[in-house]
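Whether sequence alone determines local backbone shape is best considered at the level of individual chains. When preparing material for the folding task, we compiled for one chain both its residues and its backbone structure tokens. No coordinates are needed to read the tokens, only the vocabulary itself. For completeness, the protein is quoted in full, as a sequence line and a line of structure tokens:
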Amino acid sequence: MEKIVVELFAGVGGFRVGLNHITHFDDNGRAIEEGNWNFTWANQWEPSTKVQHAFDCYCTRFGQENHSNIDISKVDKRIIPDHNLLVGGFPCQDYSVARSLSGERGIEGKKGVLFWDIAETLRTKHTPFVLLENVDRLLKSPSKQRGRDFGIMLRTFHDLDYNVEWRVINAADYGFAQRRRRVYIFAWKRNTNYNNNFIDMHLRDIIFYNGIFAQAFPVNVEKSLELKSYNTNIGEHEYKDTVVMTEHFHQSFENAGVMINGYVFTNKIEPELEPFTPLRNILDTTSHLEDFLLDENQIQKFQELRGAKKRERIAPDGSIYYYSEGSMSPYDSLDLPGRTMLTSESSINRSTHIIMDEELHALRFITPIEAERMQGFPDDWTNTGMPINRRYFMMGNALVTGIVSRLEPFLSQIFEDED
């Protein structure tokens, strides 16, 4: 099977960097792609900004051809080129469904929910394989009906003739420089050769041994056998449609699971831990580090933000409660991986990384290059003319490209076996 890829919600190209093992770009700023995954079309549109910095960065690194900068909800899915793999890191939103399936109108949900654009693309293009990334809270949202949103997603895949495997992966558990926990979702059509591997297989064996995630990111089976597991059926025999699920579905989804023909098995697993990469291993020695030092006012503000606090709050019903936060270290240890990087990185925010520079003997922010290294991008990947705060934003919004790079050989084998 040809390795033809479409990338939705492309950002600055994390999936492409990972799949094609990109570590450098040439003197013209074009990425040097070591892999053979052909990204035939990509869409990136940021609704909240006039200047489209992510799209501009993507085009700088990969050229202008076949890259769309239009709201994906306004794109006629028929114009998207045929492809065999759809990838994307889509927003976590409310996936409840407002009406039933009705004739050719297909799946209908709340407007502005971008997962429905993924579903519409799959329904239109019949894509054989799908690889998605999202925040791990997706498995438990919304708070008042745990698991409903992910259940609706799984049922949507089922209705479109897909089976699905998912896994929450903390990048630091497998050797990377960031404690970033994200859920990865791999879906495949039930008429693929790949699907034949699982026809008579116990679903637990897919999670523990034979699925793509267990092969790329081994499970500590002995510990995991003692943890929680659940079975459920989200197919048409259990729920008429996703409208019924919106009203009634409630299920615990653990950090690993699989759905085959509408039957779901989910198991909490423990990873087979690998030595992590500490922050000191990715420190930037090329930037002008004095530019990133904290002044006295910033140091004081961070002391307050990272200290313990207990504050009175008023709930929506008017009742009073107390919000508490424990204290944090005044700066991040260079001997540990970074914490989860957010889009607010480098701002005066409790989540911002602060390190003690051992050469300057002073506290400083991480540099944009260090932010890129935490996510596995080549140095200066986002140095394309955007403001420095947007460079941090892009990395906070990105994925750990090394996760995708580790999945790539197994995806390649799957595609070879389809021929």
